Amino acid sequence: MKVKIINNPSAGRTTLQKYLEVIVGRLVLQGIFTTVDKFDTKGKNDAFDEVMKIKENQYDIIVAVGGDGTLNEVVNGVMKSGINTPVTVLPAGTVNDFANHLNIPYEIDGICKMFGNGKFVDVDVCKVNENYFINVAAAGIMTDVPLKATVASKTVLGKFAYYAEGIKEIPKKLLKSVKYRFESDDETFEEDVLIFAVLNSTSAGGFKKFAPCAGLDDGKFDVCIFKRSDIFDTAAIFLKILRGEHINNSNVRYFQTDNLSVTCLQDCGIGIDIDGEDGGPLPAKFEIFPSALKFFIPEKNI
Ligand SMILES: Nc1ncnc2c1ncn2[C@@H]1O[C@H](COP(=O)(O)OP(=O)(O)OP(=O)(O)O)[C@@H](O)[C@H]1O
What ipTM is given for this predicted complex? Predict the structure, then answer.
């Protein structure tokens, strides 16, 4: 395998990055990796820019070492440059939703085994306005500046978890709902919403069953809308996400589609969050590109 590694040295707790040399060394000795070029990112968009330089057939695989944000930049690079090079991710981030969904191992032996007997699968890629995403795009819940400092997670879904957990301490006004119009070929409706998420995989914000019906190759994305409800209902819904039972709650709207437009009906300044990174402002047009990316996964995964 001719391999391009895109390594984010600062992602997560930087544990896996320390073993990267051992992993690569072992795979080279085993003859599985024949050429290895490693690039270390220094900041935002470095991974994307580096992938944009890759030519068709230059590598057999691009390995993102980092979290969902690094993987997202690599996917955007592949999609926007139009190359067909397969991608995989080694979970070196904080949450690693996509890698967890695919059961990609965290330790040296498991990772080496994956490259020895893994397989390539075709996965759908989603797009919101100009940005591609492979896992989740979400929006909602405005925060006041002082609260932001106390919220550990930078992601919309992480903040949602924080609100639900620390629900008693949160002033009511911060659970702010916003009115949106959702339009797809199937239906159009307006709703007062706390957050909404559009998912390709089942996992988001560390919850493995956030979109329990999602499939990576079903040609559809799963939309999960949390309607305005009081803080106690929100807390109850949060607990149900762990078991994937929130989708039956009357304050949650859950459906699958292959096209969606979302417009904010208030002057709210809300933006889209793609795997924890800024995805630009609303309105948002979501599209899906069925089986558009080859992904390398362990032999036994889902
Ligand atoms: N050398 C670096 N130092 C600091 N930040 C970096 C560096 N390289 C990339 N970044 C930033 O890291 C972001 C991606 O982080 P990534 O999502 O991979 O890790 P994470 O946030 O720890 O994991 P997760 O998203 O799974 O929770 C990039 O968008 C970029 O802004």
Answer: 0.95
